[in-house]
Amino acid sequence: MLTGALMAMGMCAGASTATPSFESFAQRAEAGDRLTVVFFGGSLSWGARASNPQTTSYRAIVGRQMEEKYPKAHFKCIDAAIGGTGSQLGAFRLDRDVLAYEPDLVFLDYTLNDGAYETTPDTLASQEAIVRRLITEAHCPVIQMFLAARSFVTDGTTEKMKRRTAHLEIAKAYNVPCGDAITLMQDKHKKGEIDLDAIWTPESFDTCHPGDKGYAMYAEAAWAAFNQAVADKVVCSAPQAMLNADTYTHVARVRLSSLAPLPPGWRVTAPSTDYCAFDFLMTRWLDDLTVAANFIPKDRSKTEPIEPAKPLKLGFRGGTVLLFGQSSPRSAKCKLTIDGKETQFDTCQLGPNNTGRMVHVAATGLDPAVDHSLEIVPVFGAPEQPLEVCIESVCVAGGDARVWKLDK
Questions:
Q1: Integer Cα distance of 333 and 214 in angstroms
Q2: Is 1 a domain residue?
Q3: Is 48 exposed, middle or buried (0-12, 13-18, 19+ CB in 10 A)?
């Protein structure tokens, strides 16, 4: 009994914590530590159109390579990928879906989803803030991934990919390696070593998400970047001054349920377990859901009309405001009024037959030092048409980054 206790104490004493050093990660893996590797990004990190994303996605392949190279280590690989989302939402998901797992290494994939050929100040700020917080708060090394759509390969050059260039500048400033599947696949294509029709099959009618052969190439780029970083003893570090605005270093993801009591017609419920793809199963990503509707469900097909939900009036501080929730076949349009300026957007983002994520960037570039107002008004049609707006949280970045309910 005593011997076992002493052995357990020794194992605990020998365990070490994460540092931004790739050499340290490798040493801990060789020593048999428990290590958490997070794959954070969009559908290409999940593995959309892979024959089996659990085994043939790039994250699954890299996880397997880790286990083969470091057989003593105990790896936990975390899938933190939601299709069709970028670094702006990622910055608001970071605490819940990445930092909560105490990662030892993170593969970060938002270069494609943020738009490889163009940049905006806000999306560069969100990407840099994610990199910065991973290094300074999680104290773990990071690899930025440049994943390829078919058009990226056929372009044959990266000169017009402004975001890739900007993300390389972030990588240089933070000493972060990059797994560059774009240039890898371009080089192989020029040499005639790959058949793009075998990677993005014509019958799939999808030139973004590849099949297994494409994911194997993504993994090749990721694995090469990791091994080179270990060999070079790379240590990620954050410069004193940011390259971009510090907007997303101050964030708040405020669940509407926390602002109760809510106006009539708004109710708090659980996210749906319906989904069109596993990365769109919103029970994975949302803690609850606040629904404004003109009906109540009686069963899966029948509804009962009710008085339509009333407007929700909020105050907030921040430079960027984003809504995160759920899209369903019954999702309605929604009118937003920010500081008296009205806009409208459709919360049905996945078509009339699918359920999944709802993300809307409502405003960027606001003054984070002053109070702002936000009114959310669901737009309902005829009473016999059941419609709803499903929001988990109002997310704000910059300044004090807070949200509160307005009484009037």
A1: 37
A2: no
A3: buried
End position of a domain, from candidates 244, 261, 290: 244
Q: How confident is the model at residue 1 (pLDDT cuts 50, 70, 90)?
A: very low
**For residue 327, what pLDDT is reported?**
98
Place of tokens 């192989």: 188
Average pLDDT (41-49) is: 98
Put the strands of the sheet holding 34-41 in their side by side order.
Answer: 74-81, 34-41, 105-109, 142-146, 178-180
Nearest to 44 by CA among 137, 127, 112, 93: 112
Q: Span 237-254, mean pLDDT?
A: 98
Q: pLDDT tens digits, residue range 108-125?
A: 999 999 999 999 999 999
What is the full DSSP assignment across 249-286? GSEEEEEGGGGPSPPTTEEEEPPPS--SSGGG-GGGT-
Q: What is the pLDDT of residues 260-302, one digit of tens each?
A: 999 999 999 999 999 999 999 999 999 999 999 999 888 877 8
Radius of gyration of the chain (CA): 23
* One domain for residues 49 and 81: yes
Q: Is the pTM of this model over 0.70?
A: yes
Tokens of 403: 């949200």
Kindly state whether residues 83 and 195 are assigned to the same domain.
yes
The per-residue b/e assignment along 131-149, b for 16 or more CB within 10 angstroms, e otherwise, is: bbbbbeebbbbbbbbbbbb
The parent domain of residue 314 ranges over 250-405
Could you tell me if 306 and 293 are in contact, meaning their C-beta atoms sit under 8 angstroms apart?
yes
